[in-house]
Amino acid sequence: NAGVTQTPKFQVLKTGQSMTLQCAQDMNHEYMSWYRQDPGMGLRLIHYSVGAGITDQGEVPNGYNVSRSTTEDFPLRLLSAAPSQTSVYFCASSKGPGDTEAFFGQGTRLTVV
Amino acid sequence: GNSVTQMEGPVTLSEEAFLTINCTYTATGYPSLFWYVQYPGEGLQLLLKATKADDKGSNKGFEATYRKETTSFHLEKGSVQVSDSAVYFCALTLFYNQGGKLIFGQGTELSVKP
């Protein structure tokens, strides 16, 4: 069972570069989310989606874009990377309304220099 | 606003010691509460959950009770093992899951020595 798959696992970017973090799930989950993990701050929600074509902002959305064209995929785009975006990024999915268990990918460690 | 506060780490224990990691929350409505565990180099895994007041979640020897009167969800284990070394996150989600959004505490790193 693949579950939630994130690519790449590691990435180094220069300031101002753009990139897309990929996230795919094979559980037919309605809900998908992106979090960033920073030391001492836990995980903070960047963007989330309740279904294909529907996305919304979380707690820290600035500098990030998302789209959800299919149920399976939920890519996160950094349009112009900044050192403040150095973090570990996690994608998560859950079944849908009323179901509370979230499944997480293994994370992408991003460094912006 | 809605938030989760958990005890600062790191916590270092000897094998077979008793573990408590404190977690308190602030939330509107009736949250569901969770403990997630992150082993080194991995993503988060659900450890246990409780969806209403006085529920007790349990898994792998860990337990936590949803205490509405003290807005707490402390994690306990009677006898820790080296394999329990990980980062533990307390989290909540609001009524009816609201799009799967989770609000996390800061995380507590646990190190268990043989």
Please provide a written account of the structure.
- The complex is a heterodimer of chains A (113) and B (114).
- By secondary structure, chain A is mostly beta strands.
- Chain A is built from no helices and eleven strands.
- Chain A has strands at 4-7, 10-13, 19-25, 31-38, 42-51, 54-57, 64-66, 76-78, 87-94, 103-104, 108-112.
- In chain A, the strands form two sheets. In chain A, strands 2, 4, 5, 6, 9, 10 and 11 form a seven-stranded mixed beta sheet that branches. In chain A, strands 1-3-8-7 form a four-stranded antiparallel beta sheet, with no helix packed on it.
- Chain A is globular and about 40 Å long.
- By secondary structure, chain B is mainly beta.
- Helix content of chain B is 0%, strand content 49%.
- Chain A binds chain B through residues 4, 31-33, 35, 40-45, 48-50, 56, 58, 90, 92-94, 96-102, 104-107, and chain B through 4, 32, 34, 36, 41-46, 49, 51, 89, 93, 96-97, 99-107.
Low-pLDDT runs of chain A: none
The general outline of chain B is: globular
Low-confidence stretches of chain B: none
Order of helical and strand elements of chain B: EEEEEEEEEEEE
Helical percent range of chain B? under 10%
- The amount of beta strand of chain B, in percent, is over 45%
Give the beta-strand count of chain B: 12
> What is the H-and-E element order of chain A?
EEEEEEEEEEE
Largest interface: A-B, 31 and 25 residues
Mean pLDDT of chain A: 93
Radius of gyration of chain A: 13 Å
Helix content of chain A: under 10%
Q: Sheet with the most strands of chain B? A: 6 strands, mixed
Mean of all residue-level pLDDT scores of chain B: 92
User: In terms of structural class, how would the helical and strand content of chain A be classed?
Assistant: mainly beta
Quaternary state of this entry equals heterodimer
Number of strands of chain A: 11
